[in-house]
Amino acid sequence: MSKRLDFLLALTSSGKGDAFAWYGLAMEYRSLSRFDEAVATFEKLRARHPDYLPMYLMCGQSLAGIGRIDEAREWLSAGIDVARTASSDHSRSELEAALQALG
Predict the structure, then answer these.
(1) Residue ranges of the domains in the chain?
(2) What is the pLDDT of residue 1?
(3) Predicted pLDDT at 25
């Protein structure tokens, strides 16, 4: 196991941890091609911090990359809604482009 992964697991092991720690853990799993663990971690992050915008694009892309297209669409669509609520046009635009790319 990598030191970074060990560190992030320690930060989130209590089930608490801030949004950035959970996001970092999910992204670390993604970088290690451990996609099921990445998605599970994004789901935990979403349950704890549903307004954390970056996770929606990254989880959607991860799901699309492993062929789980319907789930990817759901994540991207949910992210678009969160971006609208947050008035984040840049994030909304990125999410919409990713959704369109799925066909």
Answers:
(1) 3-101
(2) 65
(3) 97
Tokens of 14: 């209590």
Instruction: Write a three-state SS string for the chain.
Output: CCHHHHHHHHHHCCCCCCHHHHHHHHHHHHHCCCHHHHHHHHHHHHHHCCCCCHHHHHHHHHHHHCCCHHHHHHHHHHHHHHHHHCCCHHHHHHHHHHHHHCC
In sequence order, the 6+-apart residues with CB closer than 8 A to the CB of 30 are 38, 58, 62
Which amino acid is residue 51, in one-letter code?
D
What pTM value is reported for the model? 0.92
Q: What is the CB-side half-sphere exposure of residue 82 using CA atoms within 13 A?
A: 19
Q: What is the CATH number of domain 3-101?
A: 1.25.40.10
Q: What is the pLDDT of residues 39-94, one digit of tens each?
A: 999 999 999 999 999 999 999 999 999 999 999 999 999 999 999 999 999 999 99
Alpha-carbon torsion, ordered 9, 12, 13, 16, to 10 deg = 180
